[in-house]
Amino acid sequence: MSDPIETFRARILERKPLRLKGGGGKDFYGGPLVGEVLDTRGYSGIVGYEPTELVITARCGTPLAEIESALATRRQVLACEPPHFGDATVGGAVAAGLSGPRRAVAGSLRDYVLGVKLMDGEGRELSFGGQVMKNVAGFDVSRLITGSLGTLGLILEVSLKVMPQPVAVATLRFDLPQGKALDAMNRWAGQPVPLAATCWQDGVLTLRLSGAQAAVS
Q1: Is 155 in contact with 94 (CB distance < 8 Å)?
Q2: What ranges do the domains of the chain cover?
Q3: pLDDT tens, 151-199?
Q4: 195: left (phi > 0), else alpha (psi -120 to 50), else beta?
Q5: Beta partners for residue 198, in sequence order
Q6: Phi and psi (nearest 5°) for 15?
Q7: Pairing of strands 36-39, 18-21
Q8: How many CB atoms are located within 10 Å of the residue 75 CB?
Q9: Are 209 and 170 spatial neighbours (Cβ–Cβ below 8 Å)?
């Protein structure tokens, strides 16, 4: 069975345009799709998970669902809720840099990238960052990689900060026109309310609360 790393290196050293691809669910995002497909899903698996240190490290082709399932067993989550759009991989999620509904209160995916290992255009393996928050001296390349869509190198591994699951979650729906919905969201944002996400669509404001049971109640 061929070594995925050596396969990646051989393809890169062919000097042909490549299109890095995981699950393919974010093909709509970014510029036109060009180049030969380099499928990363063969290089998968969780390399390390330290629940007490709130960090997980996985290879680029690891399904995002697999990571979320592993975290759920220890009541932990990816707080920024990166979207799946199909069979998402962690490498594709970081390369796209997209975050979900909690982004406004929890921060973006970039805020949770602790370190990356990547392969550059010369086939070299490079490591940046690490597995703790305060590990960077100088330019933080690991966060620059987030959202770069593979233009700076092929992500091989990524270490992400994780967070505990909220104790309680509640979702509320209100029939409100857009103006009143905006007024309500701005008013609640200035109050000690455990807002986790908001969305207004087609005359309906959806509000998610999360945190301690007493706060949600």
Answers
A1: yes
A2: 4-164, 168-216
A3: 999 999 999 999 999 999 999 999 999 999 999 999 998 898 999 999 9
A4: beta
A5: 207
A6: 60, 35
A7: parallel
A8: 11
A9: yes
Q: What is the b/e burial string over 164-181, where b = at least 16 CB atoms within 10 angstroms of the residue's CB? A: eebeeeeeeeeebeeeeb
Class of 4-164 per CATH? alpha beta
CA quadruple 126, 49, 45, 14: dihedral, nearest 10:
-10
Q: Which of 177, 176, 215 is nearest to 196 (CA)?
A: 215
Element (H, E) at 93: helix 90-96
Q: What tokens does 9 get?
A: 């290196």
Tokens of 206: 């959806």
Distance CA 78, CA 182 (A): 27
**Prediction pTM value:** 0.88
C-beta separation of 67 from 56 below 8 A = yes
Q: How far apart are CA 83 and CA 80, in angstroms?
A: 9
Going by DSSP bridges, is the β-strand pair 76-77/163-164 parallel, antiparallel, or unpaired? Answer: antiparallel
Six-digit token pair at 23?
A: 């699950």
Residue 137: its pLDDT value, please? 55
